[in-house]
């Protein structure tokens, strides 16, 4: 009898364990991409029944600035075995993290998006921007080019850009529309300017402006590129066009002043600087940038004027003046040395 009771007890325990083990388990979410408030505080809604429902919930939360809930819903969307939009969902996750300054998680999400869809233009573009800002220039350029090439696939254009030698005509053959990656074109323009490939930079910027004709940043970058290549009239035209959209933009005003200095229109440059600073600071700026432009002799009188206007305060102008005088002396000594060498020749 005791044995029978023991067997019955075991059978009951086994039955109960079996029932418990067969209860439906909640879905397992990969929360490695989540970084927000505790999940149990986010929502009391029932679980979404499909990927599309989860994405819709995420979109609604995002529009309502509830980024934690949006993240959670997008992550839930990834958990469905029949999911079809993982790359787009991961791009959204990356954008949320990037907006919060969480670059590591943003990079992870964008990278996963590209793994699901190697032609996800937006994710490729964002990775290019992240790596370029981190100083990983080669990687940044590679992802920008991949974004451009993926966009050509979308636009059914057989012309693409290889990673090797790129010519202006190669860029001109690319197709663009309003959905094309303007930031990737802009980024490649900046990287080209850094390499002193101003013709390439111009071609990239013009494509970016073809996509976004009213882009102040595009106009300003193109204007500065023209300035660096010595095309001052074009530089002035595009910089003025940019400033029409944002007259108080400090960077645009500084660029315009530099252009006027390049054109030897010093009074115009001083007037531009004096819109945002006092006379001593403006005169010092003019002297400093003339030094950078290789014109130390022209810089000296403006630096002296800056010191005269604020002698007790303007340490920076004194340092710049000493630098300009040293450069002038060096040039004079070099010239005298060359003359002496010429005179002693038989």
TrEMBL record:
Keywords: Repeat, Signal, TPR repeat. Pfam families: TPR_17 (PF13431), TPR_2 (PF07719), TPR_8 (PF13181). TPR repeats lie at residues 87-120, 121-154, 182-215, 216-249, 280-313. Residues 1-20 form the signal peptide. InterPro entries: TPR-like_helical_dom_sf (IPR011990), TPR_2 (IPR013105), TPR_rpt (IPR019734). It comes from the Bacteria. This is Tetratricopeptide repeat protein. It comes from Vibrio vulnificus.
